[in-house]
UniProtKB/TrEMBL annotation, chain B:
PANTHER family: CYTOCHROME BO(3) UBIQUINOL OXIDASE SUBUNIT 4 (PTHR36835). It comes from Thalassospira alkalitolerans. NCBIfam families: CyoD, PRK10582.1. It is found in: Cell membrane. This is Cytochrome bo(3) ubiquinol oxidase subunit 4. The chain crosses the membrane at residues 30-48, 60-79, 91-113. Pfam families: COX4_pro. GO terms for biological process: aerobic electron transport chain; electron transport coupled proton transport. GO terms for cellular component: cytochrome o ubiquinol oxidase complex; plasma membrane.
Length: 208, 134
């Protein structure tokens, strides 16, 4: 019986090896995806908070008084442009084109900077109007949600600059490709979150 | 040796596709995704800024519906989600997350709005007006 078992497992062993060989991943991409999903939960909680507090104006300004939808539309387009330029950087990377990758990454970073800059300008403007986070529940949840997203984009830009240096130093080695793919997921994920922000916070907010 | 390494390369290349999971697009797929996103972004902004629909509920429904469609577009064309990437684990993690997100958001709204109706009477404006407190 034992003998039979041993021989059976011995003959099966290569089969196991083959099925394992079918997905020889180092797990980074899946791990990073799971990180993004956990980040998604953070944003979900912030959206839920805004959903609860978003109408508590405390006799203060409402979204219709504060938000300039033209500015939000420009901001949205900045992020959308940066998404497709990052896509072009990935296409250049797959072709092994170092200069092209760097160029598209720089353009993506500039769109990202424009996005953060416009958001800071908006915050500054709101602050000037007295619409600070301390003013009402609506503004507390607004600043928390939108600034968390903006902070993510800012860190994405820092990461992007880091990878520009790395690619400049070492070229498109497998490690850098992997890092660029992770940042790609991160960047596109932030654009997905922004869809929720402009729809729920700005558009539904102004609609009242 | 060379045939062996070629065969191995082929195999590895195939596996690599699976391993990368989510990053192989083409110029056309990025362009299609971008154009769809622009349209799906422009419509809700237009609806709100021009006040196209009379009903607020209908406008809100359109905004949310188009947002969901745009998120799906981004998932497919930019994040390259499909049921096969990472042997299906990407999709499984996503579905799990969506379930948790749905529970967290709908549950929070449900509970908190019910709590609002159970607030102390003086917190209700109509009570303030009719009651003896004001």
């Amino acid at each position: 019986m034992t003998m039979a078992n041993t021989t059976a497992s011995q003959t099966e062993a290569p089969v196991f090896y083959m099925t394992e060989e079918h997905h020889p991943q180092n797990g980074t991409m899946l791990g990073f995806w799971i990180y993004l999903m956990s980040d998604c939960l953070i944003f979900a909680i912030l959206f839920a908070t805004h959903g609860v507090l978003g109408r508590n104006y405390a006799a203060g300004p409402s979204p219709a008084d504060l938000f300039d939808l033209d500015l939000v539309a420009i901001n949205t387009s900045m992020l959308l442009f940066s998404s497709i330029t990052y896509g072009f950087a990935m296409l250049a990377m797959e072709k092994g084109n170092v200069k092209g990758t760097q160029l598209w990454l720089v353009i993506t970073g500039l769109f990202g900077l424009a996005f953060v800059g416009l958001e800071l300008y908006e915050f500054h403007h709101l602050w000037h109007l007295g619409a600070t986070p301390m003013r009402s529940g609506f503004l507390s949840s607004f600043y928390t949600l939108v600034a968390t997203h903006g902070l993510h984009v800012s860190f994405g830009i820092i990461w992007l600059i880091t990878l520009l240096v790395q690619v400049g130093k070492h070229g498109l080695v497998p490690e850098n490709k992997r890092r660029l793919m992770c940042l790609s997921l991160f960047w596109h994920f932030l654009d997905v979150v922004w869809i929720g922000v402009f729809s729920v916070v700005y558009l539904l907010g102004v609609l009242g | 040796m060379s045939t062996h390494s070629h065969a191995h390369d082929d195999h590895a290349g195939h596996d690599h596709d699976h391993g990368d999971g989510a990053s192989h697009g083409t110029f056309n797929s990025y362009l299609i995704g971008f154009i769809l996103s622009v349209i799906l972004t422009a419509i809700p902004f237009w609806l709100v800024m021009e006040g196209v629909l009379d009903s607020k509920v209908a406008t809100a429904a359109w905004i949310m519906g188009l947002a969901v469609v745009q998120i799906v577009v981004h998932m497919i064309y930019f994040l390259h989600m499909n049921s096969k990437s990472e042997g299906g684990w990407n999709m499984l993690a996503l579905i799990f997350t969506l379930v948790i997100v749905a529970i967290a958001i709908s549950g929070s709204l449900w509970v908190m709005y019910h709590l609002n109706t159970n607030m102390m009477p003086q917190m209700h404006p109509e009570m303030l007006r009719s009651g003896g407190l004001g």
